[in-house]
C-alpha cells in the first residue's frame, strides 16, 4: 500500500479551510518522500523524536484539525473519531522507539483529513447540516490536553527517576 498523498490533497479546492487542512495534514504526515520508495512521512514523527516537547507540538497541531472540523460543522461522530486518532497517536507515540515507529505509520492527520473529505458533497464543499456542539469540542480538547499533561508528567517522572538512578 502506497503512502503517497492523493494528488487532490495538494491542489486548490476553492475552499480555503479545506486547502489549509490539506496543507497542514500534508506537512505533518506526508511532506517528505523516502528516496527510491513511494513511502512518505512528515514532520509529525520527526517532532515525536524530541522527548515530550515534540509530542506536545505535534498534538497541538493535530488538535487544530479538530477545531477546524468543528468550524466546518462536522458531525459529532467525525469529531470523536478524529480525537481518537490524535489521542492514539499521542499515547502510543509517547513510548520511546516503539512510539516513534508508530508515528511514522499511523498518520493521524492524514486519517483525519480523509474523514473530513468523506463528508464533502458532490460539489466539493462541506454540507452545513452537521452538528456543531461547542461543548463536545471543548470536552474533546480538554480531554486531549489532560492526556497530554499526563504524558508530560510521565516524562518528567521518568526523567527524575533516571537522574536519581544514574546521577547520584
Question: How many DSSP H or I helices?
Answer: 7
Q: Got a strand count?
A: 2
Mean pLDDT: 86
> Percentage of helical residues?
55-70%
Instruction: Please state the overall shape, judged from the principal axes of the Cα atoms.
Output: flat
Distance between the termini: 49 Å
Which series of helices and strands comes N to C?
Answer: HEEHHHHHH
The chain-level structural class is mainly alpha
Largest sheet: 2 strands, antiparallel
Q: State the low-pLDDT regions, or none.
A: 1-8
Radius of gyration: 17 Å
Percent strand equals: under 5%
Main sheet strand line-up? 1-2
Structure description:
- The protein has one domain.
- It is built from seven helices and two strands.
- Helices cover about 65% and strands about 0% of the residues.
- It is flat, with a radius of gyration of 17 Å.
- The chain has about 170 residues and is mostly helical.
- A two-stranded antiparallel sheet has the order 1-2.
- About 25% of the residues are buried.
Task: Tell me the layout of helices and strands.
Elements lengths: L15 H14 L2 E2 L6 E2 L1 H6 L4 H19 L4 H18 L4 H9 L1 H10 L16 H34 L1
Antiparallel strand pairs: 1-2
Helix pairs in contact: 1-3, 1-6, 3-4, 3-6, 3-7, 4-5, 4-6, 4-7
What's the short version?
Helices cover 65% and strands 2% of the residues. It has 168 residues and is an all-alpha fold.
Q: Which characteristics define this entry?
A:
flat; two-stranded antiparallel sheet; 168 residues; disordered N terminus; mainly alpha
Amino acid at each position: 500500500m502506497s503512502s503517497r498523498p492523493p494528488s487532490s490533497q495538494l491542489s486548490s479546492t476553492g475552499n480555503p479551510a479545506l486547502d489549509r487542512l490539506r496543507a497542514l495534514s500534508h506537512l505533518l504526515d506526508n511532506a517528505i518522500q523516502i528516496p527510491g520508495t513511494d513511502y512518505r512521512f512528515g514532520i509529525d514523527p520527526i517532532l515525536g523524536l524530541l522527548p515530550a516537547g515534540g509530542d506536545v507540538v505535534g498534538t497541538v497541531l493535530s488538535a487544530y484539525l479538530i477545531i477546524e472540523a468543528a468550524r466546518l460543522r462536522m458531525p459529532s461522530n467525525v469529531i470523536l473519531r478524529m480525537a481518537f486518532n490524535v489521542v492514539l497517536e499521542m499515547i502510543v507515540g509517547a513510548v520511546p522507539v516503539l512510539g516513534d515507529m508508530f508515528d511514522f505509520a499511523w498518520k493521524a492527520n492524514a486519517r483525519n483529513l480523509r474523514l473530513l473529505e468523506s463528508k464533502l458533497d458532490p460539489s466539493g464543499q462541506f454540507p452545513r447540516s452537521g452538528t456543531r456542539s461547542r461543548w463536545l469540542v471543548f470536552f474533546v480538547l480538554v480531554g486531549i490536553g489532560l492526556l497530554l499533561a499526563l504524558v508530560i508528567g510521565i516524562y518528567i517522572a521518568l526523567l527524575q527517576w533516571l537522574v536519581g538512578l544514574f546521577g547520584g
